[in-house]
Amino acid sequence: MRAPIPVFVATGRGWLGPCRKLAASADIAVVANIRQAAILIVAGEPRDEDRDALRRLHDQMPHPRATAWWGTRPFAEADSALEVSATDDPGPLLRRAFAALLARVRESEPDWLPDDPPNPWRGEGDHGQGGKGMMGGTPYGRPMAMTADDLRDGLALDSFSFTVGPFYPSLPPGLALELVLQGDIIQSARIVRPPLDPGKGAADACRSMIVGRMLHLLELDALARRCEAVPVDDRDAVAALRRRIGASGAMRAIPDGLGRIAGADARTRFTRMVAALGDAEASSFAGPGGRLVDLLPGLEWSEAMLVINSFSHRDLVALAPREVEPEEHREGHGT
């Protein structure tokens, strides 16, 4: 029996449905960390503003490595790119490329970015250390912690700001957030980029992937993989999956009252989402109104991920419009 190919998927606009089918293949193991991948799959055309994040993502992948461009043209700097048309199954090409990498027949891809700090920092600041006073700055592109008042008790503690997304697997594809944390408590949040359009007719695939992400967050990985692979048009299989999720206690693992908006909390929204699995007509629920970023301050990281993924795609788009970028904002390393 052959080992599955470890791949990391960067999903583009309208490609959520094909990516779900690919993830269900026994030949493929979609990993949650680019450092576990041998092949990066770029599925669909990336947004212009996501291209630099995609380059940073690629350069974090360990050697030997390759990139498959599925239904989109490779970047100019992507030498020896693997190209797959939008209508073809990338599986056979991935299998051959993975075997060639392991046998060292195929050369590993070089970095796409120059070996330079992504942000200027050397020589800046009072002592040339790159920050403000004795602290701060963005050495090597990673913002250092600065003191700020904690929103719970006003004590001045180290706060850390960073950008996560648009390819972070625990978030909907395309969504990028700038967060300020003290410890594991979110102090503030800003939408950097909204989630991507999942594509026409992808409501069922989108819903099953959201439920799958919630189950991963609740550490029910086997059930999550079953959810991500279940044929959404197989009523018996979907009904059996719903019973398994209910019996797992997943709903009760979500804190009562978490992320409440418009009379529904994260547990209620997740319960509705599970009930709608396999129902193509239940494309979304009523839009809740409000802003996602107002729900996140004061939450721990794990709670925030549950709140974000408890919304349907349609509701999340309404809750997370793109925000104006502050003048002093410098983007760190997104994933």
From TrEMBL:
Q: Which SUPFAM superfamilies match?
A: HydA/Nqo6-like
What is the protein name given in its UniProt record? Uncharacterized protein
Disordered: annotated segments: 109-136
Q: Tell me where on the tree of life, at the top rank, the source sits.
A: Bacteria
